[in-house]
Amino acid sequence: MKDEFIRDGIRGNLTVKSFVPATNIGKFDLKVEPHKKKITVIVKVFYRFIDNTQDELTWTMIQKSDFKRDTRRAIIDKWSDNYKIRCIKQGWEEFVMNIDFVIAQVNNPAYCQYVIEVKKLARYKSSGGINHGVTPHVCGVNNFANEVDITKNQEYIFNYKEGLIRAGLRSLLPAGDGDYVTFSANQHILPSSMKTYLDRFLAIVRMRRTSDVLGIKAYIIGLKGKNDGTFTHNLESNRATAIANYINTRITGDNFAIASDTSEQWAKDAVKFLKTRPRNHTTSGQDGGALIVIRTPNNVERTVPHKYIVMTHEFGHMLGLPDEYLGIHSNSTLSKIQLDRVWPVTLASTSVTTGSDRLRLMQDGYTQMVTQANIPLPNLISTTTIAKKPEARYAQQKIDEKNDLHSTRKRQLKDKFGQDNWIYKKYKNSHPYLSGPPLLTAISNSIMHSGSDIQKAHFVTIWSALCNATSDHLQCTDWEIIATT
């Protein structure tokens, strides 16, 4: 059977033409060559350049040629060498398939899968979109589509990455309080079990804390418990220092972990929030330990370098991938995201937006494929989503309670003395309405949202086409998407 599989590839029989994934968008050809360990993804395009008569701007032949070259370069550079697809069927493990992308330009729109319609603008504008309701599909962009998008709010992406590190730490324990580690009574020396635990955290840090967010720090706050002796000298600071030193010997170069205390307000708020958790090992609990707080110092600019390029995003649509900035429109998609628990609860969308059957069917198809491929979904986070940190929620709750008390008291004084009485006025002026701390707004760094990260799920439509092309020889469960190492 394996030999016949190889021969079919040599004969050109392992192909699909104009494949449309379950999302019901996208269209591409795919060719499998087992003897070369290669999959080729081909998108046939026809370019249509539109002059700007209003600003008297016309396309020259050189400009058209440059745009075509830059489009191909931007797409190939971004999408190549991210993932492979390997066969996991016993005895077939040799087939680890590289993925090549081909942007095939045709001279007749009747033979293309996408018309790339490029308008010429005088001033920069980030715009792009695909009309899948016409044949051939039309990808509408402008002459800036291959340049880095300078309009994206990079602070929001920074917030998102910070949230991933914080959530990764907390999710190390089932209750979501993996940011608190405990010590035996009166001890500050790290046992081997704690070192193993911290190593799990550091694996998350190395994956999530990329060079553009090195300003994010881990502040370690040592705490006593009821089992600790009253007169143990510097126990809290010794615990914090021990953990910070261990982390910094393994994350070298920039003092990632910082031994801290509760002298600053943010630290006091973090400890207060810790005390509200069911697994209470704080100063009011039995076991002392250390709280690890992921935060960014105030003097660090919360931005990341601009990397989003419109054309690389639109190519994702050509592969059949939906936008991820419109929120969740499918119950199956919401269930999958919640089941995977990949994304922080403070960032993940938690409700379904209704009203768009097109988006619902698109997301249902996407969820179906990633479920079959046994990989997590990206987070389809709406651009209007506010990333509410638990600390901010706790602080807001306390502030709301104070505002309610003040409102009740003012109403009592007003009813008793009248609104012109000095007693009412004095109380009102000395108890203004309190506002909570600002909440972070975050957007995903996914290439199908607002950033540049390509995830496993973004190769699932290629995986689906591969399953189709090789169905006479293999099952879908025989193919697995893996990261390129």
From TrEMBL:
It comes from the Bacteria. InterPro entries: MetalloPept_cat_dom_sf (IPR024079). This is Uncharacterized protein.
